[in-house]
Amino acid sequence: MKNIVSAVILLLIGVGLLVTGSVSLTSDVKCGDQVMRRGQICTDIGGGGGLRNYDAQKAKNERTAYVELVVGGLFLVGGGVWLASGIRDRRRRAAGATPPAQL
Asked: Running along the chain, 103 residues long, what does each successive block of 10 average in pLDDT?
């Protein structure tokens, strides 16, 4: 049961990352929680620091969104496989069958 709950949590995190990444790709360019316009400069104090113009901030936001999409997809697939495996093992135990030998 513990594995099934963990797999569902991983699935939910994956879905959350996919949604966040998708929204980030289609939303306005933001510096923190402020919407940027062309000609503005974003000042980042933490996480690499520095100053970024609109285009550089847009590129950074897109990179972050793509990372979220990839990691979310991996979590979704991994959680799905883990969940299917947990359900299959649970059904085998309930049926009294012995699982295949581990190599």
From this structure: 89 96 91 90 77 91 95 96 89 74 73
By the 10 Å C-beta count (0-12 exposed, 13-18 middle, 19+ buried), 78 is classed as middle
pLDDT score for 99:
63
Domain boundaries, the chain: 2-94
Question: Do 66 and 21 contact (CB within 8 A), yes or no?
Answer: yes
Nearby residues of 77 by Cβ (< 8 Å), 6 or more positions away = 14
Dihedral angle computed from the Cα positions of residues 71, 33, 19 and 9, in that order, rounded to the nearest 10 degrees: 60
Length reported for the chain:
103
The position carrying tokens 């950074």 is 60
Question: Which residues are CB-contacts of 6 (< 8 A; sequence separation ≥ 6)?
Answer: 82
